[in-house]
Every structure is written in C-alpha cells, then in structure tokens.
Input
Amino acid sequence: MPHRFTLPRALAAMALAPALALSNPKPTPAPAPKPAAEAKPAPRAEPRRYTVEQLMKTTRINGASFSPDEKRILYSSNQTGIFNVFSVPVTGGKPTQLTNSTVDSTFAVGYFPKDERILFTRDQGGNELAHLYVRTPDGQEKDLTPGDKVRALFFGWSKDETAFYVLANERDERFMDLYRYDAKTFARTTLYTSDGQFDVSDVSPDEKWIALDRFNTTADSDVYLHEVATKQEKHLTPHQGTAGWAASTFDPVSSSLYLLTNEGTEFTRVVRYGVATGKMEEVEKADWDVVSTYFSRNGAYRVSVINQDGRTVIRLHDEKAKKAVALPSLPEGDITNVTLARSEKRMAFHHNGDRSPTNLYVYDFATKKATRLTDTLNPELDAKDLVEADVVRFKSFDGLEIPNILLKPQQASAQNKVPALVWVHGGPGGQTRKGYNPFFQYLANQGYVVLGINNRGSSGYGKTFNTADDQKHGREPLQDCLEAKKYLASLPYVDGARIGIIGGSYGGYMTLAALTFHPDAFNVGVDIFGVSNWLRTLENLPPYWESRRQALYQEMGNPQTQEAMLRAISPLFHADRIRKPLLVIQGANDPRVLKVESDEIVQAVQKNKVPVEYVVFPDEGHGFTKKKNEAECYARTAAFLDKYLKQAPTAATN
Output
C-alpha cells in the first residue's frame, strides 16, 4: 500500500526505532557470536541500570547486498559512531570497513553485479539531499549525482546488469526524473520525465514499461502503466470510493505487474495485472496488510512482507513448486529485510526482537543453515535486564479500540508505582511496532513505563482506522492520547499522578497539542522535531514532495483554503495555554519540520514563565544518524524527565 505522509528520516522503516525515523522507501530488496536473547525471562526485583554510554555501544545496522561471487555481504553500520559501509564474509568473521566518513552518514546501496565496486548514498548533515556515489576497490569515491539541490535515489539494476536506474530532481527540484546509467561509463539516458503527477514505482525488466503511482489522497491512489516507446500512460485501476492501489513489482519476464490494493477490503492484498491481457487476478491476501511483494532475480522465489499487529511477518514463496518455503527457526523476534542472492541459492536477512537489536544473517537453502554475521548488542548489556514489549488495547472515548505497544519496567509493581509516558509516533499514518527500540529500552531501564500508542490514523489496522483522523488532527486522535493516559493510570504499577507525553515529528506535534489544548492532562512534554505551525509546514514542504502535496492537503488541511482550521489546531498560535514543563529537540538541517518551528514554540512558552529546555543539533536533520547526538538526546530527555516527572509529587502525596 502507498504509505501515508510521514515525517522522520528514511533510516528504518515503519517504527520510530533506531533513529527516531519514519519514512518508508521502496524495499531494495569473527569470534562466534553470543547466543541471542531468550524470550520472556523471569523478571528480576531490581534489574541492573545502564548508562547512556553503555546503551550507545550497541550497534545499528541496515541493508544487505551480496558480492558478485556471493562470498561477502555489504551493509551499513554505525559502529564508528556514524554510519559507514562495511562488508563481512558469508561464513562469518571480522567485518571490513570500506568508507571512512566522520562527518556525514554513509549508507550502502550494494555491490556492482559483476565487479567489486560499490554504490552508496550520503547527504549533508541530515538535509535529505542524498547523492549517489561509486567507490572503486582502491578506495576512490565519485559523486554520480552532483549539485547543491540535487536529491538522488538508487532505483535498481537493469535485467542484464549492464546499467542501473536513478531517480533524481536535477532538472527541477520538484520532480524526480528516472535515469538509466551505464554501469561502466556512467553515461546516462532519461527513461521518464516527471511532471509531478506520479511517483515512479518500478521498471519492467524489458524496459518497455514503467509503473507509476498517483496519490489522489493519502488513502486513495491509482496505478498507471507508462509505455517508454510512446510515452503514453494507461490507467490500470479505475475504482469507486476510497481505495488504495500501488504498484509493487513486475515479474522477471515482464509479463505481469504485481499490485497492492485494499479496494473492497479493509486490508491490503496482492493482485496481478497481465500486461498483454489486461486481466486482473487475485494472488495473495492475509488478515493484515501485505505491504510489499518482490521476486528473486530469476523468479524462483517471491517474498511478501506482512504488517501483522505491529510485527513483521515474511512469507517466502517457491514460485515453481507453488508452495511456501519454511524460514529458519530463530529466537523470539522477527525476520525482516530479506535479500535474495542472484544465484537464488541463499538469502540475507535481518532479525531482531524487543530485547535483541537487529543482526545480519545469511541462510543457505541447500543446507538449511542460518549463519549470524553480526553481534550488535553491547556485551556490557544483559538482555535479561531489558524489557519484552506487549501488545495491549484499550477502548477510546467513542468505543474505538486503540492498539499499543507497552513496555513495563521490571522494577515496577503495585508496591513500587512508577511514572509513565505516552509515546506518539510520527506520521500522520505511522505506527509504533514491536522490535528493539533503544530509546524505549533506555526509558524503561530508567524506570518509566512506555506506552507506544497507535492512535486512530495509524497504519496497519485497516483502512477505516487509517483514515479516521483525516481532517480531524488535534481533536479525535489527540483524544486517544488522553484516553491512553487514563489507561496507564488504571494499571496497578503506574503512578497516575506522574504521566507525560513524548513523540517525534507528528508525535512531537501531538505532544505540543496535548500541552496546549489540554494543559492539565500531562505533567510534562517532550517534543522531538515536532510541528508547531501547520500553515508554515504545509506551505514549505520539501520541493521533491510535489507529487504528494495535494494528497497531504486533503489529509491535514489546505493552507490556502483552510487557514482558520489549521491555525486553530497549531499549538504556536495558542502557546499561552502551555503551563507544564517542555523539552524541545531539533535538528538544524531538518527539511521537513524547519528549525523555526521549534525556535518559535520555545520562545512562546518562555513567555509563560514555564520551564522549557531546548536542544539543537547543528549536524542533524529529521532524526539522528550520529551516535553522539542520539546519546545526548537520550541523556537530556532522561534528565528532564527525572527532574520534572519522576520527582513530581506522587499520587500518594497528592
């Protein structure tokens, strides 16, 4: 399904997990490691407390690409304190660092299919103007997409692997055109010139067709088929009412386009469009959203990804035998980000659990052996001191059931009531999910209950739930957060007199809205790069979001025609009501929520003689890609909460 408008960075998918990140790019597709954490340990009376420094020694990784001989895997890691590119043998062993950036995070794209060159991306201080680079085996680096305002995205390899595709806004910063780069000379040709109506979704292996997505609203979309030779578009998905349609992938022989849709259903399923016949066929469905499907290089396997109640479930299909392939059995947690080798003999994947950060594995289909290639948990941390998250639900003010992810500190009990936080994810339309979240684990380890609310409007729970916040922001979704506070207060181990609200991006807006429009509901608020003035934010969207501008206006409100409504829900214009302590955290280079949003809300709250703290990171954008900044964010948040929430009068003393 097309993902609705999201505000944090594209480092992780759907959860505000490792980098407080929220954006959903198209999936691209040593010493023996210590055993993974076992599930649900018996809680201790008093778990060991960890410092921020200990927590930040845990490593974050992403990406996976096989080398041409399939003996090594390329990935990104922040073990140096900032993301760089590494490779590791598929048999295990010590990783080799290939890039050495100390200023800007560097993310692996992959090896070239026929040689040891690699592609990677890097922006400038979090400004999201990523460029695509090539690195040769001798360490030389070249920017393939230069330009001060250029944003470039790698978009896959051609079928014969002599070229690769790149989306870039070089011609016009509003529009992402599709280019074909020769793999040897880097000479390029233009395959598709955008006019801002569509997003490019996939290129057929025979290069005759380009699949395009058009967002009518954030919940209603269509798919078009662009013929490269004639430059004509064919509308594939005319429909009545609200329905999401998105192109997922062409099959390896260019005969079919696989689509995702929720037309006529609550949840997204897979259908197939015959390019020659024009016939639509049902392919796959689940009781939850199927969020993507894609093939191995020659079509032996097809991978589907399901968003199942805040968890990722992978289905691996043997396309010839028409049967499911059993995945390796691993400890408690989820397999994610499956990458199939070109030979189709093995696959790489990530695995994580609530108390186990993401690790990289390789699986051999013949031997059925899974080899763990990384060990990302700091050995100073004992997983038994960390917290397993639970999925919980409560009824909101109108009876709507609200799903949540709950982390209970091990030291919390009816005899030792602890303070709590309502965590609001980004979006609108994001989702808080299970899986390792270092910020959540740190807060829980410090003695705070964390309730990650999936308020109405969140993704993953059906299209009715997903659209229930349209044009209602600052009202019904915010009421869900107030009901979340009531739910927390009902738990026997929570001190109902000490409950705060925290969130990043749209969740930062919800934090500010709660303190503004319900000034007595929460004791404190932590706003991490949140919107304070919707009029300004909607008028100053990044130019390369042009294809989704009108859809976002339908979701949030149009600043040209709905100024009064947007002003009414923007905390900045009502900041004189805020009277509870506030912490604001902002990246100076944020292109989505401009720094002025935080500057002005801080200035306004200071006039109220209310405690307000402000932290600005000069080398970050909409999220964190540097360990030192992430550590400072955690530490400043914990110190703020300890001062204004943990030390506040308890229910027993009120």
Q: What stands out?
A: Confidence is low (pLDDT under 50) at residues 1-41.
